[in-house]
């Protein structure tokens, strides 16, 4: 999992954009996250997991089905002042949720094993990752 160094934030609107690819067979992994400040009660406000080809909010609500073996554009918009996060796949809004406020945040992407239903194959590929901000 790669942390976006130098892009910690505490206010404004922040957007992660990247082109991701998850090969079939990868399951029980996190591919993108928004982390809270160090020592917060919960370490994340958003985690996008893959289970059996479905991209999910944590291990719950489906964000995008059939995520395997295709390049997709992921945009995650975090409005800190409104405490909301929205997830877009290929330009289409797929999910939105209120989030618990924190003093600071940062984006992470890549792949790492979750607590259940993980596979021996754990891989995601990323290209053209960009962070935008509107203070």
- Secondary-structure-derived class: mainly beta
Q: How would you write the strand order of the largest sheet?
A: 1-10-3-4-5-6
End-to-end C-alpha gap: 26 Å
If you average the pLDDT, what whole number results? 89
* Record field, number of beta strands: 11
Low-confidence stretches: none
**What's the CATH class label?**
Mainly Beta
Query: Under CATH, the topology is which?
Result: Jelly Rolls
Largest sheet: number of strands, sense, barrel closure: 6 strands, antiparallel
What is the element string, with H for helices and E for strands? Answer: EEEEEEEEEEE
The CATH architecture designation is: Sandwich
Quaternary structure of the protein: single chain
CA gyration radius, whole angstroms:
14 Å
Hey, roughly how much beta strand do the residues contain? Answer: over 45%
**What's the structural domain tally?**
1
Q: Roughly how much helix do the residues carry, as a percent range? A: under 10%
Shape call: globular
